[in-house]
Amino acid sequence: MSLNRKHKRKICFFTGSRAEYGLLKPVMQKLRKDQGVALQLIVSGSHLSKDFGMTVREIEKDGFHIYKRISILTSSNSEVGVGKSIGLGVSKTSEFLNKLRPDILVILGDRYEALAAAVSALVLNIPIAHIHGGETTTGAIDEAIRHSITKMSHLHFTATTLYRRRVIQLGENPERVFNVGAVGVENVRKLHLLSHKKLENILKLKLNRRNLLVTFHPVTIEGKASLRHFKNLLAVLATLKDTSVIFTKANADAYGKDINQMIDAYVRAHRRTAYVFSSLGQKLYFSTMRHVDGVVGNSSSGILEAPSLKTGTVNIGDRQKGRMRAQSIVDCHPTPPSIRKAIKKLYSPAFKKKLRSTKNPYESKSTANKIARILRSHKLTGILKKEFFNAL
Description:
Layout: E1 9-15, H1 18-32, E2 37-44, H2 56-61, E3 68-70, H3 79-100, E4 104-108, H4 112-123, E5 128-131, H5 142-152, E6 155-158, H6 161-169, E7 177-179, H7 183-190, H8 196-203, E8 210-215, H9 225-237, E9 243-248, H10 256-269, E10 274-277, H11 281-291, E11 294-297, H12 301-304, E12 312-316, E13 329-332, H13 336-346, H14 349-355, H15 367-377
Parallel strand pairs: 1-2, 1-4, 2-3, 4-5, 5-6, 6-7, 8-9, 8-11, 9-10, 11-12, 12-13
Helix pairs in contact: 1-15, 3-4, 4-5, 9-10, 9-13
């Protein structure tokens, strides 16, 4: 379908966290150049918080016009605080979307900020396009949020064939479910990553004989147990010799601030070998990932992007349980013996040899182009009335 150029299609993107923005960015860059598209952007969540790096500055630096900043974070570092943030998100986003009235709202992933945006669009009868549906992460509330957003959405962009089947299994029309691959993996391939020396100069650090990149987020279903698990990880890291540890801070979930305080305390106690960054941005983050021996923690980046750089991952606990995995992933329990064993495996000659032949199940060609093309051309008339597709 070719659009009438007299009417620009208003495509609105919502972003509430640093990782999500990094994945949406290449799609927005494609659409920004399109004469038939009016690109709109809503920024919310941890982007607007000093505690989490005030990453809205990265968006501004990239030259995107931000239509609205919606502040929803509360001072509470608890489940109740997250619940209140969702309520604020629905209230504030509904009010603004009602004025903006985009033709379609684009949401990525499974965070509570995205849930609030989806609910707002749903009640205002604004079509939703959802990226990264159909995945499973049974260790977090993200699992339920992701599938809930799927049921509220009208166009779906999945990262693998299996995930496409899952979205259809949820009753979505196959004609509106597109397997496009993971846009983050495409970013890894296209970014001009920094050299070892340039990375050291920019980050003002010195890489050691051994180096680890650590990102650990709260496991939202497990509550305060995440703090104990992270303490176990820190205890193991403290025993490693000739090893530099580069931390990126946790996201704005319940107990995320507690984890960040633990990181700060660890770095103060290990000034010569530990470094911490609230947010590195995509280029620095993936450049660091490329030059370290392994990614340690429970971030999705260790599952989705690290395999494309032939970097091993020590995946701790259940936060990513259920996601498809490359052979470069070493899963372990959040206990000191299990974490220690997994890190030891990371450095074993057999594992290093296996890394060379790692294939990433999330890789696909022209992911951002595919998403942008469908967003600007897919027919939206009548899309709001969804019938349950019975795949049985």
